[in-house]
User: Fold these one by one.
Assistant:
Number 1:
Amino acid sequence: MTQAFDKLVALLDYPMFVVTTRRGDEPAGCLVGFASQVSIHPARFLAGLSKRNHTYRVADGASHLAVHLIERRHCELARLFGGETGDEVDKFARCAWHSGPHGLPILDDAAGWFAGAVLSRYDLGDHVGFLLEPLTGNAPDGFEQLVTFSDVCDLDPGHEA
Ligand SMILES: Cc1cc2nc3c(=O)[nH]c(=O)nc-3n(C[C@H](O)[C@H](O)[C@H](O)COP(=O)(O)O)c2cc1C
């Protein structure tokens, strides 16, 4: 059964997100595939952060997260956030960003983003689910091709899950 599940999910080509947050002066962010809207009324979104990630440790003490969608022409941005860890490099020195709502780091080259309040955290196994209430953001009229799993599945993650 596990084999079938592993095979099935490996065939999916879901959109990738960059999730950022900040605790005090410390910004953090990583590439996230385990993320989805989970309710319409009220609007809710769940983002899964690996317990090993620098981003998780910062998010553990944060009240808000920002969720970004990245177009394929900016795939390098997604690769930066998935291939490097904030434990070793300052990813935010390598990309353009500004301070947004609640002091959240907002990536200038994102195609769209929203900021959400962390309502609760769920221990899911090797990841923790952050349940978000979307508060504000920026949405274009449409997207070009977004970065999806197949664009980044060759990447060596900054941290193993
Ligand atoms: C295809 C792919 C999917 C990933 N999905 C997630 C995810 O859903 N949640 C997560 O926390 N990390 C995920 N990662 C791993 C992190 O993005 C990666 O380990 C990152 O370097 C961690 O950075 P940090 O230590 O600065 O937080 C994924 C990486 C790749 C390549």
Note: The beta strands are 17-23, 26-32, 35-39, 44-50, 64-69, 97-99, 105-107, 112-123, 127-138.
Number 2:
Amino acid sequence: MPVGEPSRSYVVCPVCGHGFRAAYASSYVTVGREADLCPKIPGRPSDGARLIRSAVTMCPMCSFAAGEAFDDLDLTFDERYGIEERLKEDGLLKVFRKGQPPWLGFHAAEVCGKERNLKSRELGDLCLRASWVCRKEKERPFESTFQLRAMRHFMRSLQEDDLIGRELSVTTYLVGELNRRLGNHREALNWYVNAGRTTEGDPRVAWLDRLIDRQSKLAREQAA
Ligand SMILES: [Zn+2]
């Protein structure tokens, strides 16, 4: 199997019981990250998008989706019921289920994740990844949609999730960077300052301090 090709294995959907072959990403080669931490992957952008997409599995029958391996999920009766209801009611799924746009699995995983009480940090991560896929696939309006959702989850996460250390710094930084990408340059600058306060010169996150400096300069230019 070539490096970076997702492997396929047989999985059973924990919600509807449908069995299918799902693609799982093996580790893939990256050549650095963009400022919103999107991995740069050699080759065509659509190949990169495919690898990022394989981080979530979506059932082709009922659209249940999750970032975890389906085997590892142990859903209660109530959770299964709640998930089925949410999947049936979801507006975007109603419209896009047939067309299967590249971001759909992340969206479905976010819908299901709310019912599974995933932390805001995790919900934000699903939306952030969806925005990366949209950028690589040139789905501009959806890229912004998912950036906005990721930003809101991350802001809630900063209030609710008791983040510490690197996770706190990176999450705060991402709220800044997503604001900048959405055109809110002054907001972005405030969040970069907040993020810089959380790193406190910790050498393990020196890379983040450099990123904060660089992106702050950019936001100041853009705000002018
Ligand atoms: Zn299913």
Note: The two ends are 50 Å apart (CA to CA).
